Amino acid sequence: MSLLLHIQARVAAGARRAVAKRPWLQWLMIVALAASVAAAVHHRMMRLDAERAAWGATAQVWVSDGIHAIGDEIAAVRSEVPAAVAPADAVGDSPIGMVARQRIGRGEIITDGDVMAPGDEDALVPAGWLITPLDESTPSGAAIGERVQVVSGGYVIADRGVVVGFVEEVTLVALPADIAPLVPAAAESAVVTLLRIP
To answer: Exposed, middle or buried: residue 59 (CB in 10 Å: 0-12, 13-18, 19+)?
Structure first.
Protein backbone atom coordinates (compact mmCIF):
# COMPACT_ATOMS: atom_id res chain seq x y z
CA MET A 1 0.00 0.00 0.00
CA SER A 2 2.82 2.39 0.87
CA LEU A 3 4.42 1.67 -2.54
CA LEU A 4 1.20 2.71 -4.28
CA LEU A 5 1.03 5.93 -2.26
CA HIS A 6 4.66 6.60 -3.07
CA ILE A 7 4.00 6.14 -6.80
CA GLN A 8 0.96 8.41 -6.65
CA ALA A 9 2.94 11.10 -4.84
CA ARG A 10 5.74 10.94 -7.44
CA VAL A 11 3.25 11.18 -10.33
CA ALA A 12 1.51 14.17 -8.69
CA ALA A 13 4.85 15.88 -8.07
CA GLY A 14 5.89 15.25 -11.67
CA ALA A 15 2.60 16.70 -12.93
CA ARG A 16 3.06 19.81 -10.75
CA ARG A 17 6.60 20.33 -12.09
CA ALA A 18 5.42 19.86 -15.69
CA VAL A 19 2.63 22.42 -15.23
CA ALA A 20 5.02 24.84 -13.46
CA LYS A 21 7.48 24.65 -16.37
CA ARG A 22 4.73 24.76 -19.03
CA PRO A 23 1.67 26.85 -17.84
CA TRP A 24 -0.11 26.22 -21.12
CA LEU A 25 -0.61 22.57 -19.97
CA GLN A 26 -2.94 23.78 -17.22
CA TRP A 27 -5.00 25.73 -19.74
CA LEU A 28 -5.01 22.76 -22.07
CA MET A 29 -6.43 20.54 -19.28
CA ILE A 30 -9.08 23.17 -18.45
CA VAL A 31 -10.12 23.44 -22.11
CA ALA A 32 -10.20 19.64 -22.45
CA LEU A 33 -12.35 19.32 -19.31
CA ALA A 34 -14.74 22.06 -20.51
CA ALA A 35 -15.00 20.41 -23.94
CA SER A 36 -15.76 17.08 -22.29
CA VAL A 37 -18.54 18.60 -20.16
CA ALA A 38 -19.99 20.44 -23.19
CA ALA A 39 -19.96 17.22 -25.24
CA ALA A 40 -21.75 15.32 -22.45
CA VAL A 41 -24.43 18.03 -22.15
CA HIS A 42 -24.85 18.15 -25.94
CA HIS A 43 -25.20 14.35 -26.10
CA ARG A 44 -27.84 14.40 -23.36
CA MET A 45 -29.80 17.17 -25.09
CA MET A 46 -29.68 15.25 -28.37
CA ARG A 47 -31.07 12.14 -26.62
CA LEU A 48 -33.87 14.23 -25.08
CA ASP A 49 -34.75 15.73 -28.48
CA ALA A 50 -34.72 12.26 -30.03
CA GLU A 51 -37.09 10.94 -27.35
CA ARG A 52 -39.43 13.89 -27.90
CA ALA A 53 -39.32 13.33 -31.66
CA ALA A 54 -40.20 9.67 -31.09
CA TRP A 55 -43.41 10.85 -29.43
CA GLY A 56 -44.54 12.46 -32.65
CA ALA A 57 -47.24 15.08 -32.23
CA THR A 58 -48.12 16.05 -28.66
CA ALA A 59 -51.35 17.20 -27.03
CA GLN A 60 -52.14 19.28 -23.96
CA VAL A 61 -54.38 17.44 -21.48
CA TRP A 62 -55.57 17.80 -17.91
CA VAL A 63 -54.18 15.17 -15.53
CA SER A 64 -55.57 14.29 -12.10
CA ASP A 65 -53.44 15.72 -9.32
CA GLY A 66 -54.72 13.26 -6.73
CA ILE A 67 -57.10 10.38 -6.10
CA HIS A 68 -60.73 11.46 -6.48
CA ALA A 69 -63.77 9.62 -5.17
CA ILE A 70 -67.19 10.24 -6.70
CA GLY A 71 -68.32 13.76 -5.81
CA ASP A 72 -64.85 15.06 -4.93
CA GLU A 73 -63.83 18.44 -6.30
CA ILE A 74 -61.32 18.02 -9.11
CA ALA A 75 -57.65 18.93 -8.63
CA ALA A 76 -55.73 18.77 -11.90
CA VAL A 77 -52.64 20.03 -13.71
CA ARG A 78 -52.02 20.74 -17.40
CA SER A 79 -49.63 18.26 -19.01
CA GLU A 80 -48.19 17.48 -22.45
CA VAL A 81 -48.48 13.88 -23.66
CA PRO A 82 -48.03 12.09 -26.99
CA ALA A 83 -51.12 12.72 -29.10
CA ALA A 84 -51.44 8.97 -29.57
CA VAL A 85 -52.26 8.45 -25.87
CA ALA A 86 -54.56 11.46 -25.47
CA PRO A 87 -58.21 10.29 -25.37
CA ALA A 88 -60.54 11.87 -27.93
CA ASP A 89 -62.85 12.95 -25.08
CA ALA A 90 -60.13 14.49 -22.89
CA VAL A 91 -61.48 17.65 -21.25
CA GLY A 92 -60.47 20.80 -23.11
CA ASP A 93 -61.29 23.48 -20.55
CA SER A 94 -60.01 23.42 -17.00
CA PRO A 95 -61.92 20.85 -14.91
CA ILE A 96 -60.95 22.59 -11.67
CA GLY A 97 -64.13 23.39 -9.75
CA MET A 98 -65.98 20.45 -11.32
CA VAL A 99 -66.63 17.25 -9.36
CA ALA A 100 -65.76 13.64 -10.11
CA ARG A 101 -68.53 11.58 -11.69
CA GLN A 102 -66.52 8.41 -11.04
CA ARG A 103 -63.31 7.41 -9.30
CA ILE A 104 -60.23 9.02 -10.86
CA GLY A 105 -56.71 7.86 -10.01
CA ARG A 106 -53.66 10.09 -9.57
CA GLY A 107 -52.03 10.86 -12.93
CA GLU A 108 -55.03 9.79 -15.04
CA ILE A 109 -55.98 11.94 -18.02
CA ILE A 110 -59.35 13.52 -17.20
CA THR A 111 -62.12 12.97 -19.77
CA ASP A 112 -65.58 14.50 -20.20
CA GLY A 113 -67.08 11.33 -18.72
CA ASP A 114 -65.08 11.78 -15.51
CA VAL A 115 -66.52 15.14 -14.47
CA MET A 116 -69.80 16.90 -13.88
CA ALA A 117 -70.91 20.28 -12.59
CA PRO A 118 -71.41 20.54 -8.81
CA GLY A 119 -74.96 19.51 -7.91
CA ASP A 120 -75.63 17.96 -11.35
CA GLU A 121 -76.57 14.48 -10.14
CA ASP A 122 -78.63 13.91 -13.30
CA ALA A 123 -75.31 13.58 -15.13
CA LEU A 124 -74.84 10.30 -13.26
CA VAL A 125 -77.84 8.72 -14.98
CA PRO A 126 -76.85 6.69 -18.05
CA ALA A 127 -78.94 7.19 -21.19
CA GLY A 128 -82.11 5.10 -21.15
CA TRP A 129 -82.15 4.63 -17.37
CA LEU A 130 -84.87 5.79 -14.97
CA ILE A 131 -84.67 7.14 -11.43
CA THR A 132 -86.72 5.30 -8.82
CA PRO A 133 -87.23 6.08 -5.12
CA LEU A 134 -86.12 3.40 -2.70
CA ASP A 135 -86.92 3.28 1.01
CA GLU A 136 -84.03 1.19 2.33
CA SER A 137 -85.02 -1.09 5.18
CA THR A 138 -81.45 -0.90 6.49
CA PRO A 139 -79.49 2.20 5.41
CA SER A 140 -76.51 1.18 3.29
CA GLY A 141 -74.69 4.49 3.62
CA ALA A 142 -74.18 4.61 -0.17
CA ALA A 143 -73.16 8.05 -1.38
CA ILE A 144 -74.28 9.92 -4.48
CA GLY A 145 -72.57 8.47 -7.51
CA GLU A 146 -71.89 5.12 -5.88
CA ARG A 147 -72.66 1.94 -7.82
CA VAL A 148 -75.08 -0.44 -6.09
CA GLN A 149 -77.14 -3.61 -6.46
CA VAL A 150 -80.77 -3.76 -5.32
CA VAL A 151 -81.70 -6.93 -3.41
CA SER A 152 -84.89 -8.16 -1.79
CA GLY A 153 -85.63 -11.42 0.05
CA GLY A 154 -82.24 -12.85 -0.87
CA TYR A 155 -82.69 -12.16 -4.60
CA VAL A 156 -80.96 -9.58 -6.76
CA ILE A 157 -83.61 -7.37 -8.36
CA ALA A 158 -81.15 -5.07 -10.11
CA ASP A 159 -77.50 -6.03 -10.52
CA ARG A 160 -76.47 -2.50 -11.42
CA GLY A 161 -77.64 0.88 -10.32
CA VAL A 162 -76.30 4.31 -9.33
CA VAL A 163 -77.31 6.38 -6.31
CA VAL A 164 -78.23 9.84 -7.64
CA GLY A 165 -79.74 11.61 -4.66
CA PHE A 166 -81.82 11.61 -1.50
CA VAL A 167 -85.26 13.00 -0.63
CA GLU A 168 -85.68 13.00 3.14
CA GLU A 169 -85.08 9.31 4.05
CA VAL A 170 -85.69 7.98 0.55
CA THR A 171 -82.74 7.08 -1.68
CA LEU A 172 -83.02 7.88 -5.39
CA VAL A 173 -81.44 5.17 -7.53
CA ALA A 174 -80.94 5.20 -11.30
CA LEU A 175 -81.66 1.80 -12.85
CA PRO A 176 -82.07 0.36 -16.36
CA ALA A 177 -85.55 1.20 -17.68
CA ASP A 178 -86.66 -2.45 -17.84
CA ILE A 179 -85.79 -3.06 -14.18
CA ALA A 180 -86.74 0.24 -12.48
CA PRO A 181 -90.52 -0.58 -12.25
CA LEU A 182 -89.78 -3.78 -10.32
CA VAL A 183 -88.19 -1.98 -7.36
CA PRO A 184 -91.29 -0.17 -5.98
CA ALA A 185 -93.29 -3.39 -6.32
CA ALA A 186 -90.65 -5.33 -4.38
CA ALA A 187 -90.50 -2.62 -1.72
CA GLU A 188 -94.23 -2.98 -1.04
CA SER A 189 -94.04 -6.71 -0.41
CA ALA A 190 -90.58 -7.28 1.07
CA VAL A 191 -87.49 -5.73 2.55
CA VAL A 192 -85.34 -3.94 -0.04
CA THR A 193 -81.67 -3.29 0.51
CA LEU A 194 -78.83 -1.69 -1.43
CA LEU A 195 -75.55 -3.54 -1.70
CA ARG A 196 -72.59 -1.25 -2.33
CA ILE A 197 -70.28 -2.28 -5.17
CA PRO A 198 -66.63 -1.56 -4.33
So the answer is: middle
Q: Where are the beta strands (DSSP E) in 11-167?
A: 58-64, 76-82, 99-100, 115-116, 129-134, 147-152, 155-167
Angle between helices 2-21 and 24-55 (to 10 degrees): 100
Fold held by 58-116: Type Iii Antifreeze Protein Isoform Hplc 12 (3.90.1210)
Q: What is the pLDDT of residues 35-61, one digit of tens each?
A: 888 888 888 888 877 776 666 788 889
Tens of pLDDT, residue by residue over 117-150, are 776 766 677 778 888 888 887 888 888 778 888 8
Which residues, in sequence order, are CB contacts of 192 under 8 Å at separation 6+? 134, 135, 136, 137, 150, 151, 152, 157, 183, 186
| The overall pTM is greater than 0.70 | no
For the chain, report the end-to-end CA distance as a whole number of angstroms.
67
Distance between CA 101 and CA 31 in Å, rounded?
61
CB–CB of 136/148 below 8 Å? no
